[in-house]
Write a structure and sequence with these properties.
Strand order of the largest sheet of chain B: 13-10-12-11-15-16-14-17
Radius of gyration of chain A: 22 Å
Largest sheet of chain B: 8 strands, antiparallel
Structural class of chain B: alpha+beta
Distance between the termini of chain A: 40 Å
Helix content of chain B: 25-40%
Number of helices of chain B: 11
Helix content of chain A: 25-40%
Shape of chain B: globular
Mean pLDDT of chain A: 93
Low-confidence stretches of chain B: none
Oligomer: heterodimer
Largest sheet of chain A: 8 strands, antiparallel
Structural class of chain A: alpha+beta
Radius of gyration of chain B: 21 Å
Strand content of chain A: 15-25%
Low-confidence stretches of chain A: none
Chain lengths: 299, 357
């Protein structure tokens, strides 16, 4: 890092609200010497989750650990015939990469950890690796086979909370009569619940939104985040005050005042209430000037 | 505390372990030295999630010991670990040998709580590694030398302690180093670090390469063959990651292509060199006292050649006010605007940072 403020760090993830990146320099790394991809089928999500915890606990940091539940598998099968083991309550896809000797050792540990799986497939070549990944990579689009419409949600919970959060999502689903297919980056607790509904059915869309929002509340309750990858945008800005205090958001917006005091760049994104630059941070007393002038609504 | 200082327009400089208070230019004014030593609790270590949340006054050594108890670490092998605190480390963002593999503080920080000059307490990030909600104030505060506010708490992502590790140590002539460094950086044996110790520019230098993780032994052999010589040990050389005398301390950053040029120009300064040839980040120390004009000339000569090679030079510590510490910094106007927003009263470590911020 060069001396000075990490403006790069502030800019990354700012969703276009601080300006436009015109030139980007990235650091490259050498492709790993060895890659091993494993598909493990478990009877239940709980067992799959236990395996994930055991992998992390063993000090292994795989390149990827992905999990799909039965509904997501069903959809993927219908879409791309990925032929994942039948009857799986959950499949785990683990990819290890790095120096050959290290991957070999970690693979041996992994096989032992996944001894509870009722089926274990190891990719013997790039074609088999692609076959293992096919189901996971098609998952989002695949749910179109089992539902006319769906919401792709993106939330994060601490890995150790995964079992209780998944159980809570199950309950939400049952309560509202809305199916949820789960696909997630199990290694870092980044969930992508696919909230399924029939948009021709009256009220179904609204119920799906309720479930989708309740999942975000779950993430916050468990000390996670309302977005792991997809960003806040406009859609989730109303959740920002549930995750951060007004002071937190005000302080973040000091950065915006430095970069873009007139709010020209992607206004309306990320922050539900724009900050008037030049104000002192802290809880605002009285109505926001933009609300008073009729230019904005405050939720 | 800060609200009181705000009311009375008192300038505040922050201290953790005080190990780097003399780094950077001296503050323009300092009415209060805010010592965070007593905010030294490890608030939460979620071992199952590989996350730790600590107050700013926890020393890096204390943190390492607590984490090691569960077989984990914060992969930042920064200098002065016994006394350096989490907050001070973040504020000055030094790097250790393993930064090549694990990144620096900004890459491992996932959440922060700060207190601004007017007493406002604010958080950003959180307790999970994947998190893109809101702006990353943590990155902004990292390396800010206390000029934006007080870092009160920090949350980091952790790594499991390496299963095994080896060092490959070899003595090389100056010109042998650049091609070997390039090969190491691209090696699929994935070394975690490669440090150079060059106490006397007239003589040879010592290269030490660290390989960590499973099968470290066999990977070490691969790396030793790559270097062409050397011995493999289970312990680091005594100079590993060490800053011995930082009364005068110059940091040189450079791209891989500039390695030869940097070695050549440093040889002419009489300063000793130690640091990461893989990360392109080395520190120069002076064995004896060095007079002001001598130092200024050395730095200016260094700067010219290093910048021509695509790098930069920062004088982290020097007993002289006249030396240009930071050199040219791009983006300064925007940085000034950030400062104005966070500390309009200019009371947080004023003058200690780039561009006189």
């Amino acid at each position: 890092m060069d001396p000075g403020y990490d403006l790069l760090g502030a800019f990354i993830g700012s969703e276009g609200t601080l300006g436009i990146a015109t030139k980007i320099t990235v650091r490259l790394s050498r492709a790993p010497q060895a890659v091993t991809t494993v598909l493990a089928a478990f009877e239940s999500i709980e067992q799959g989750g236990q395996a994930v915890s055991a992998i992390i606990g063993a000090g292994i940091v795989p390149a990827a650990i992905e999990m799909m539940d039965a509904l997501a598998i069903e959809a993927a099968e219908a879409a791309v015939a990925c032929r994942y083991p039948e009857g799986a309550g959950a499949v785990l896809i683990v990819e290890l990469d790095g120096p050959e000797a290290e991957v070999e050792q970690q693979f041996a540990q992994l096989t032992e950890i996944c001894s509870g799986a009722f089926e274990l497939r190891v990719a013997a070549d790039p074609a088999e690796r692609a076959a293992i990944w096919k189901g996971r990579k098609s998952a989002f689009a695949a749910v179109g086979r089992i539902s006319p419409a769906y919401i792709v949600q993106d939330g994060v919970v601490p890995r150790t909370s995964l079992p209780s959060v998944l159980a809570a999502i199950d309950r939400l689903s049952a309560e509202h009569g809305i199916r949820v297919a789960n696909v997630f980056h199990a290694g870092d607790g980044n969930l992508h619940p696919l909230v399924l509904f029939d948009d021709a059915e009256p009220g179904a869309g609204e119920r799906a939104e309720v479930v989708s929002g309740a999942i975000l509340d779950l993430c916050i309750e468990h000390g996670g985040s309302i977005t792991g990858e997809h960003g806040v945008g406009v859609d989730k800005s109303r959740y920002m005050p549930r995750m951060f205090s007004e002071t937190d958001l005000d302080t973040m917006q000091l950065v915006r005042c430095a970069f873009d005091p007139r709010g020209l760049s992607n206004p309306g994104k990320v922050f539900p209430t724009p900050r008037l630059c030049g104000e002192a941070p802290g809880v605002r007393k009285g109505a926001h000037p933009l609300v008073e002038s009729g230019k904005a609504e405050q939720f | 505390m800060l609200r009181v200082c705000a009311e009375r327009d008192l300038a505040v400089v922050l201290a953790g372990g005080g190990t780097k208070l003399h780094w950077g230019p001296p503050p323009e004014r300092c009415d209060v030295l805010l010592d965070l030593c007593c905010m030294n609790e490890i608030l939460e270590h979620a071992a199952g999630d590989l996350v730790v949340r600590a107050q700013a006054g926890v020393t890096m050594a204390a943190l390492a010991a607590a984490l090691a108890g569960k077989g984990q670490e914060l992969a930042l092998d920064v200098p002065f670990a016994e006394d350096s605190t989490v907050g001070g480390m973040l504020a000055t963002a030094p790097a250790g040998p393993r930064a090549f593999r694990y990144g620096t503080a900004r890459d491992l920080l996932i959440g922060i709580t700060v207190v601004l000059a007017d007493g406002t307490i604010a958080r950003s990030g959180g307790k999970v590694v994947k998190n893109v909600a809101g702006y990353d104030l943590g990155k902004l505060f990292t390396g800010s030398y206390g000029t934006l506010g007080v870092i009160a708490e920090a949350t980091f992502r952790l790594h499991p302690l390496p299963a095994d590790r080896r060092w490959i140590t070899a003595e090389l002539e100056r010109d042998e180093l650049p091609p070997i460094a390039a090969a190491l950086a691209a090696s699929q044996a994935e070394p975690s670090a490669a440090e150079v110790d060059w106490p006397d520019p007239g003589g040879p230098l010592t290269l030490a390469v660290l390989v960590e993780g499973a099968a470290a032994g066999s990977r070490a052999e691969v790396l030793r063959a790559l270097v062409g010589k050397g011995t493999v040990t289970g312990e680091p050389p005594s100079w590993w990651g060490l800053i011995q005398n930082d009364e005068v301390l110059v940091e040189v950053r450079f791209p891989a292509t500039g390695t030869q040029a940097v070695l050549d120009v440093v040889a002419g300064t009489g300063l000793s060199l130690r640091g990461s040839v893989l990360s392109g980040r080395v520190l120069l120390e002076s064995w004896g006292a060095i007079a002001e004009p001598e130092l200024a000339a050395a730095v200016s000569g260094l700067r010219k050649r290093v910048e021509a090679a695509g790098g930069r030079v920062s004088v982290l510590a020097a007993p002289y006010a006249s030396v240009d510490r930071w050199g040219q910094v791009s983006g300064l106007p925007l940085m000034r605007r950030v400062k104005e927003q966070f500390d309009p009263g200019r009371r947080m470590s004023p003058g200690r940072f780039v561009g006189g911020i």
